[in-house]
Write a structure and sequence with these properties.
This protein is mainly alpha-helical. The chain has a domain at about 25-80. The protein has helices at about 5-15, 25-35, 40-50, 65-75, and strands at about 60, 80. Strand 1, helix 4 (about 65-75) and strand 2 form a beta-alpha-beta unit. Helix 2 crosses helix 3. The longest helix is centred in the middle third of the chain and has 13 residues, at about 40-50. It is globular.
Length: about 80
Amino acid sequence: REQVPWQFASEILEFVHPIIPERSLVPEYQKIFSHGYCRGADAFHLATALYLEPEAKNLVFLTADKTQGKIAASLGFRLLS
């Protein structure tokens, strides 16, 4: 993340699209925090992933954070880290 050249990052970001949930993510947060603690933005990313794929079976989760990765794996996501 740090020291990644802007040119490279901007090419990757062309494929990133924001996801705006149409409801509260409280059920997803409850599920996440029943598996452990993670920081706010990490929890939001996990909650958004669960919003998209509630069973965590058909979505690969990408993270560089070990704690977030542990929780993602315990939720059932396949990891790419």
